[in-house]
Amino acid sequence: MRYTLRATLLLGFGLAAASLAAGQAEFTLQPSPSLSSFSVPAELANLLQAQGSRLVHSTGAAEDPICDVWWVKSVRATRPAASASGVLYGELETGELVGLLHFIASDAEDSRDQKLKPGFYTMRYAQFPPDDKEVGPSQYQDFLLLSPMRLDSQLSTALSLKDAVRLSNMATGTGHPALMNLVPVNPAYKRLPAVVADDVGNCAVQVRLPEESEHGSGDVEISLLLMTPPKETGGS
After folding, report:
1. Which of 4, 56, 64, 161 has its CA 20 to 30 A from that of 202?
2. Is the residue at 233 inside a domain?
3. Residue 15 lies in a domain
4. Is the peptide bond before 184 cis (omega within 30 degrees of 0)?
5. Partners of 148 in the beta sheet?
6. What is the pLDDT of residues 105-130, one digit of tens each?
7. How many domains does the chain have?
8. Which domain does 106 fall in, by range?
9. Residue 170 has what DSSP assignment?
């Protein structure tokens, strides 16, 4: 079976001679280049951890960089974790900045198969109700909204869901926001950040972020789904 890697910002990432079985895909994390080597605004860089992570796909002697992720130095936890079914990260605040994503691979797509250009996108947390028109059917209600870095200026402010969606719409030009799925953390992974991959081609990056709240400081672990296998196109 022909296998083409896609990210959930589905990276539409077609490998040359992409005929690997799903279980043969090997993903690793490497240190990202310094933020100072990119044209990242100082205000944003000051909110991010200095060291980022680069997701790399390896096939034999070849290594293909997929994306860089830099996470914020800390997240705000201003309310208790939600108990609603399908909500994983209710302690995070809607519209809060959680990181910066740099697409290296071309022909990126989001979870709705919307095209995204290579470049830099801010990531903000959002929840959507089940079967919301913006996300379609989804097992979980937690997402990261992507917005073009150059258009996201209220970096220290948690945007309303409406404003965060409007900003994210600028990434796609389709009238719908650019979304990435957050998935449950795998408690078996203690040394973070880590790549969490399965044998069908799904790949997530799991991280631990410092957390600040009125109750003190701590940590929150989140898992961001970056790669998925291709969707079936029909046929037998």
Report:
1. 161
2. no
3. yes
4. no
5. 121
6. 876 778 777 888 999 999 999 998 76
7. 1
8. 6-228
9. H
